[in-house]
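Practice record 12: protein with magnesium ion.
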Amino acid sequence: MRIEVKELKKDICFQNQKISILKDVNMSFESGQIVTIVGESGSGKSTLLNIMSLLDDCTSGEYRWDDKDIFSLKKSEKQEFLAKYAGVVFQQYNLINNMTCYENVKVPLYLNRNVKCSERQGIVENMLESVGLSHRKDHFPKTLSGGEQQRAAIARALVNDPKVIFADEPTGNVDSENEKQILNLFRKISDRGKIVVIVTHSEVVKGFSDKVYRISDGVIRMETA
Ligand SMILES: Nc1ncnc2c1ncn2[C@@H]1O[C@H](COP(=O)(O)OP(=O)(O)OP(=O)(O)O)[C@@H](O)[C@H]1O
Ligand SMILES: [Mg+2]
């Protein structure tokens, strides 16, 4: 699979002034790649990731997954597409507070018609084990540490075995041992032909990836391929 972003722009109107948050962004990702996007705070990383994961609109540009023109999909089709093929790890985790860690990770499976009810528990338990959270499965988010919440958010993004993972600072809150574990998990996934797109400040994550883009004030350029 190949994902292409072409001439993507995002302008917003703030206090009667136009601000260009993303300026002609061009990128491409291939199956099996871990791609990182690095850049200073406020450079537009989360905005870009939110547009690619169809949670925000852009002003103009093209977005293709193979031959599929994603921006031309209807709203309902976009939601279905997102639920089926993409996993998103949010910068602020966005876990549901009144659900346990286990229940949070299970949520995407309710939207997946290919997984039987009887299979859900085993899938969630395996997922929790792979992010080292089996012992915290019955905890609610507020009784998890920041790093544990982050790992729960990663488990939730991966539980449906998506083709593409968009992760916003997925190791921003964990120690170096857990960072390594998360990266190894992402590598296993990319080795199975998936695409992992990571926004990060971490040099370790950057060093681990196959392709690096740097974004600065909404302008993106390829750093290494
Ligand atoms: N709705 C909005 N109204 C006004 N400004 C916005 C809006 N959305 C984003 N911005 C601005 O766009 C810029 C990019 O924001 P974004 O969240 O994408 O940055 P980021 O690179 O993810 O930063 P960080 O590393 O701190 O998470 C920021 O300067 C932000 O203030
Ligand atoms: Mg951000």
